[in-house]
Each structure stands twice: as C-alpha cells, then as structure tokens.
Amino acid sequence: MMKSLHKTKKGFSQHHRDLLKSDRRGFMKKMGLAALITGVTGCGKEFAREPVSQQIRIPIPTYESFGLRPIINCLGTRTSMGGSLMLPETKMAMEEASNNYIPMAELIEAVGRRLAELSGAEWGCVTSGAAGALVAATAGCVAGEDKKKMAQLPDTTNLKNELLAVKPHLEAYEFYQRTIDIKMKEVETVKKLEDAINDRTAIIFVWGEHLVDSSFSLDDIVRVGKKHNIPILVDAAAERPDVPNVYLEAGCDLVVYSGGKCLRGPQCAGILLGRKDLVHAASMNIAPFSAVGRTMKVGKEEIVGVVAALDLWLNGRDHEAEWKEWERKLKHITDAIISISTVSTEVVQPYRPSNYAPTLSITWDRNIVKISPAEVQEQLDKGEPRIKMYAGDNGMQIISYMLEEGDEIPVGRRLNEILSGAV
Fold it and tell me: Positive or negative, the Cα torsion across 243, 246, 251, 256?
C-alpha cells in the first residue's frame, strides 16, 4: 500500500484508483482514524485529500547510498540500533496524516481523548520518545498549566522541584533533570522515602524494569504516594502497554512508553498515559506550545502513527502467534548449530518486563571450539549479512524480539560457519 501511494495516477486504471481510495477509508475506519480526523476537523464526514501525483525527482536515499550496512537485529529494541521496524498499518496511518494540514492543538486534544479510549487511562499524550515523555511529565507535575510557572521553567526556584526514588530506580531518570532543574534524591528504603517527603516534593519516580528485583513492591510506593498526594511517575519505556495497565491499575498517576519499541510505531515518539490533569498539563509544556519543551516537537504523522500502533497492539496483533513465531525462529537457529561439537543452547524465558520475548543462550567448550564470544560477535558484525548479537563472557545471546521474517536463516547459517570453522 505504501509503495502504491508513491506512484502517479497515470499508471492506474479507474478500478485501481477507486480501490486505493476505498482501502484507505476502510483502514481509517478500522483503526479509528476516520473518527479521529472527523473530530479534529469538526466535519460531519470523512475528510482526506488525495496524495499529490508527481514523478520521483531524485534518487531516494537508502542506508546503502550513505555507505552504511543495515543489520539483522538480535539485540532487541535498542534505541541505539533504531528501535524496531514499523508495521504496515502504522506506516499507512502516517502516510494518510501527511496528506493534510491540521491545527496541532486540535490534534493533540483529539489524540489525548483517543489514547484514553484505547488504554483505559484518563488521558494520553504523544511525546518525542519515552525520554520526552519523562521531561513533559516532570514539567506537568512542577508547573501544571500555570502560565507563570510554565514560563519560569527550566528554573524551578520557589516551585515544587524535588523528585524522590528508591535505589536503584533513579538511574533511569538522571540525565533528564538537565532539561528541567529538578532536585533528585535517592534513598535506600520505602521508609526513608516517606521520611524524605516535604512541601517541595513534586514526583515519586519508579523504573518499572527494576521492580522485579527490588526489595519493595509497587504497592509500597503507591501507598506512600497516595498518603502524601505525590504523583507517581513510572518509566515503562520498553514494556508492553497492555490493558488493563498494570501501573495505572495499581494506583500510579503517570506511565511512560516508547512508541518505537514493542509498539513498533515511530521511533521518535513516546506515549504518556495517566491522570488527565497531569497528562494534559504535560502536553501544554511541550511543542507546539511556547514552553520549556518547545524543542521536543512531534510531527502530525508521528502522532497519528502512535495512535495506530497502540490500536494495533491492543486490537490487531496476535501476540500468541508472535510468541510462537519467535520460538520457531530460535529453534531453526538451534537446529543449525546444535550438531557442532560441545555447542549447547537454551531458550530462556523472560523475567523482566522490557524486551519481553524468549532469548536463545548459546555456549560452547572453548577447548574444542577455539573462538571467544567477542570474536564471534566481531565476525557476525563484519560478515554478510551484517548481524548484531550480544556476546557475554561464556557465549552468545539472541533476543528474538526484533527478528524479522526470514532472519533466522542467515543467523543460523553464519553461526554455523563461524563455530564449525573454529573446531
């Protein structure tokens, strides 16, 4: 569909042109985008401008045209590796959004409502990545929608400007305090967390990834936050945004997700969900409004793309089938290398909420297979196709999360070549 939209009308029959229009409108209805656009424009019917017909006037840039080599991603959803690959419906939604102008304030309001409908949260906001959502949430909690306080940021003098966290949760947030001058304090226990609360405390911060091995529970944090009326902000960037939302159901006030990790939406976008007053305030403190987050712009295409990605996650994707496909790919890789002397594999089930997918652990006796994990990693990176894989002290790990269709074939082949060649 995306390729078809880039063609000129000249090559299409009337039947094909009608089919393109009907397919796009049908997609918009299915994804809830027609209702979204109708709500934004105020029109009583669907409004969609046809793409402008034109010949392609320049060579379309590719990674190869820059002298780069794309990778097969065995590392999972890492921002440094480009996050994830967008799914077709998301790209179609972004293409549709690119065909019209829209007042951004109206779009932000309509999308806030739609994200609430999809997620069960009171309100939602699309931000410039999960990191942008943390900054927006901080601004919302510190300044709210008070124009004087908003104009004062990033200076937080005489404002509520302290953030509390229990170790080791703070390390996920530390960098973002440079955008807003929030004073951070990390304590060792929930008791000390409560003792540290004062009239300047603006936020209690939780890194969802670390709850699995913390000495305290989420309920402990929620109890303290509710008792003292302090908003609880959760970083769940690479986690599953399922419904019901585990953090909001537990009583947290705000939760952040990446749009470009498990959602497989735009890599430059994120989602902030939670209390309507706080999320709405956060949206007022970022672009397109003249506030501290004006530099963190998210385009109309990315905003609509995130809505499509969340809708697809909740209503369109078969998560059980995806899991079985990950296991099938790992079995194919195992079958390709298991006959090599001393090579052993194990499928490890996830226990952390981020990159929640099965992982293949590969080990061997280095007295027999005379090559180190680091050397395997280097050969995979330099070979054809280029493969990025984690090398530990004792072997390799393959996170199945971002393996695309057919990737298991060259991965298994290259591992076989490298390991068998070292015997």
Answer: negative
Element at 162 (helix H, strand E) = strand 162-166
Tell me: do 245 and 381 sit in the same domain. Answer: no
Task: Decide if 86 is inside a domain.
Answer: no
Shared domain check, 196 and 291: yes
Query: What pTM does this model have?
Result: 0.86
d(CA 283, CA 122): 14
Q: Residue 145: helix, strand or coil by DSSP?
A: coil
Residue 79 is assigned to a structural domain of this protein: no
**CB neighbourhood size of 125 (10 A):** 30
pLDDT digits (tens, 9 = 90+) for 182-191: 999 999 999 9
Task: Tell which of 288, 315, 342 closes a domain.
Answer: 315
Region at 79 (left for phi over 0; alpha for psi -120 to 50; beta for the rest): alpha
Q: Is residue 348 part of a domain?
A: yes
Query: Can you give the pLDDT at residue 173?
Result: 63
Whether residue 31 is found in the same domain as residue 177 = no
Q: Could you tell me which residues come within 8 angstroms of residue 86 by beta carbon, excluding any fewer than 6 positions away? A: 94, 260, 264, 265, 266, 305, 309
Domain hosting 271: range is 92-315
Tell me the per-residue pLDDT of 154-165, one tens digit each, with 9 for 90 and over.
999 999 999 999
Could you give the strand order of the β-sheet that contains 390-391, starting from the edge strand earlier in sequence?
A: 344-348, 359-363, 395-399, 390-391
Residue with tokens 């179609």: 92
CB 232 within 8 A of CB 221: yes
310, 333: one domain: no
The whole-number pLDDT of residue 210 equals 87
Bridging pattern class, strands 232-235 and 270-274: unpaired
